[in-house]
Write a structure and sequence with these properties.
Oligomer: single chain
Shape: globular
Order of helices and strands: EEH
Strand content: 25-35%
Structural class: alpha+beta
Number of strands: 2
Radius of gyration: 12 Å
Helix content: 10-25%
Distance between the termini: 30 Å
């Protein structure tokens, strides 16, 4: 289970630290807020490839 996520120097995010509690976590926010960036960061942790473009 993912309990913590720290993202540094990823596109628009200088530094972000999140702690996840038990149960379901939902990401919400305005367009351009960085929701997709967070899901991409988790994908990289899971072994996904970074898109250099």
């Amino acid at each position: 289970m993912l309990t913590d996520l720290v993202v540094r120097n990823m596109v628009l995010i200088d530094e972000l630290a999140l702690e996840f509690g038990g149960g379901m976590t939902v990401l919400t926010g305005e367009t351009g807020a960085g929701k997709t960036l967070l899901t991409q960061a988790v994908g990289l942790l899971a072994g996904g490839r970074a898109n250099p473009g």
